[in-house]
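In practice, a research group might receive sequence data for several interacting partners and want a quick structural hypothesis before committing to experiments. The following worked case mirrors that situation: the sequences arrive first, and a predicted assembly follows.
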Amino acid sequence: MLLNYLVENFECMPDQTNTIGIIVHKLDSYFITCALKGIEEVAAAHGYELIITHSQESMEKEVANAELLFDRQVDGLMASLSVETRGLAHFRPFTEMGVPIVFFDRVEKTGNSDMVVIDNARCGFMATEHLIKQGCRRIAIITSSLKRNVYEQRYKGFREALKDYSIPFTEDLLILADNDKDGGMDAAWRIMHMDPMPDGLFITNDLVAAVCMHTLKEEGIRIPEDIAIVGFNNDPVGRLITPTLTTIDYPGFEIGRTAAKSLLNHLWGVSSAVQSQTAVVPSGLIVRGSSLRRDRRADLPYCTD
Amino acid sequence: MDNSKEITIYDIAKNLNVSPSTVSRALKDDPTVSKKTKKKIFETAAQMGYRSNPFAKNLRQQQSLTIGVIVSELNSAFITSVVSGIEKVAGEAGYGIIITDSSQSAVKEAANAQNLFHRRVDGVIASLAPDTKDLAHFSPFVDKNIPIIFLDRVSDMAESTSVVIENTQCGYMATKHLIGQGCRRIAHVTSNLQHNIFALRYKGYRDALAEGKLPYEESMLVIAEPTEEASEAAAKKIMGLNPMPDGIFVTSDFAAAVCIRTFLERGVRVPEDIAVVGFNNEVIGRLIKPTLTTVNYPGREMGEAAARSLVNHLKGAGNIGSISTMTIRAELIVRQSSQKPGG
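A structural hypothesis for the assembly, expressed as tokens:
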């Protein structure tokens, strides 16, 4: 694949700024800082500097940041979209000027640019199927705005798994929460007031999962015996809490590296602007204590395929 | 159309068959150019993808409404709260932020400073890399009267405003708390002491030991970057000391959480066998068992203070030169990991 091919000894054109602009939706996220490290490693090795802007999950800020980076004449742009972003009109000035863009993680399907993602629907399916295999029959999902591709896809995978195993779904089993500490506490509070309580939770963010689990435990709910929990991201926090958190590995560093290579290929003319590619980086389920209600072996065929 | 070439006023002039000076005047909204011509020039400029030269724009407007932020690392809860503090104040004042990460390298920091200078920022907020030896890479800003504020990781050489916490006092406070809990053999896990913030916390730790007439040996100082692997190795090293320390002061909450996990996994009780104090007040400290005693490191307040001072200076409301150092208050938060029974 072209993504793995990098032109050596490329000489930069004199009218280039050797600067790559980056727009991220969040900074206090383990996934994002890993992705930035990956981007940085590839960019630095080829003499590019990065300037990073932060949309704080606001489309308005994202639009302002795009303008700001356009005025700074970056050679290329990488972006992970805010939860609110609809449409890509604010990136049009770049494409019209021939400045290549690569989207990663949070993307819009309508674009004509390269994208680097994981198979979120499949990950959502795997997480939910694992809970079913562990004996859960009333499974809730705690996630963020379903208008954003990553959450919409994880939810889709969740619903498909329930359907495949004929597990009933009702609307109250979908809980929307912000991706922060307060979101985790609010979600736990809602779970505790459900009757009957769910016996399994798929939470699409590890920090939310960690706080939610902590809050449930403080109320005397046993994890995983009363409620089994699967998170998402493989944030180090999941290895430090008790029980340790089952999660989906989201390889941020790999995503960042792949996205940066893809952008460099466009900058060097190896990839053409009209031909856009979507790279899907592998991910998988990591089983730990928060979901293990049965012998782990019972589950293995489903998490290694 | 060849997209790789930057469109200039000359291209627009050629396209419309007018003089470049007319185009230039039209784009500046000069009244000497007729409305009709101006409209035609604006439309053509937009159509051809003309970008105003930021330098020329800067000369015209004097401001780019952008603040450059240089951080030495991005993957820390402290830095992201600093950035959110900067964003809040700068955003309210109408400034955008661009961030560069020096990855703890003075060489990268210099490259980033140069790049921000070329990207024409109105002001800079910088937290230095551990191996930054001189501040020559900031002199282009000084020469152009572009204000710089140093934050957290500062240099004695800087003649700019700095925003810091009392690191020596914090190290002293954390260690003194452990002594108060009955600890008599206290180890210290920290990062590269080349960096002033860690050197100062270490000094505070040594001051408290000296004051309490407690022993210090070199083996009780463990230098480990706050990664999972290095912190686990640090905990094992401490467990291997003979006699084993009964207290540790760790300058990162994440590292402290990894140390606690390592101790507990190997049957060492926290706080009974070893009391632990961390640093930063991260969320993790409230989620682990025992909950973590820590020093509240007010990143957001520091970011806000730095940005407020910079914005005031840029708006002419304050003069950075008149203040040299702003110290933000940090305090000890006592939780379970350090409270010895009967301590």
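Before designing any experiment, note the following. The interface with chain B takes residues 13, 15, 17, 19, 27-28, 30, 33-34, 36-37, 40, 44, 49-54, 56, 61, 64-65, 68-73, 93, 96-98, 181, 207, 210-211, 214, 236-237, 239-242, 273 of chain A (CB under 8 Å). Residues 63 and 89 of chain A are 9 Å apart (CA to CA).
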